[in-house]
């Protein structure tokens, strides 16, 4: 059991979807089910009602560049003769299988950034 808070920004923990405090416990128990607490250090992930609303901003910041890159790649290299709206539609459809990963990483990033900048939850 970890007794002292870590509060380090750890790219490894983010990449491997681990706890922001101990860097060991898994944040997600299944594809979409989050653990309420870290199985290693017992830190509670959701600090209060509506806590993960902030993760939507991270989701937007992750999703839009992926879609924009896909549209640019399609228009400039792959199918330049297609109308832009068709390329955009195809890119959105191709993005749909990535949506679960964006969902997970947006929450992971939000937890890590929130714990880094507000370790005690004083900003609640």
TrEMBL record:
Q: What is this protein called?
A: DUF983 domain-containing protein
Q: Which UniProt keywords apply?
A: Membrane, Transmembrane, Transmembrane helix
Domain of life, per lineage: Bacteria
A Pfam family this protein belongs to? DUF983
Listed transmembrane segments:
57-78, 84-103
């Amino acid at each position: 059991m970890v007794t002292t808070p870590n509060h380090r920004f750890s790219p490894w923990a983010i990449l491997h979807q681990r706890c922001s405090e101990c860097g060991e416990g898994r944040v997600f128990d299944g594809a979409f089910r989050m653990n309420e607490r870290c199985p290693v250090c017992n830190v509670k992930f959701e600090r209060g009602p509506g806590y993960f609303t902030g993760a939507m901003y991270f989701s937007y910041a992750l999703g839009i560049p992926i879609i924009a890159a896909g549209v640019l790649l399609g228009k400039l290299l792959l199918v330049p003769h297609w109308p832009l709206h068709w390329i955009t539609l195809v890119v959105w459809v191709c993005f749909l299988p990535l949506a679960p990963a964006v969902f997970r990483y947006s929450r992971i990033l939000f937890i890590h950034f929130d714990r880094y900048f507000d370790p005690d939850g004083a900003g609640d």
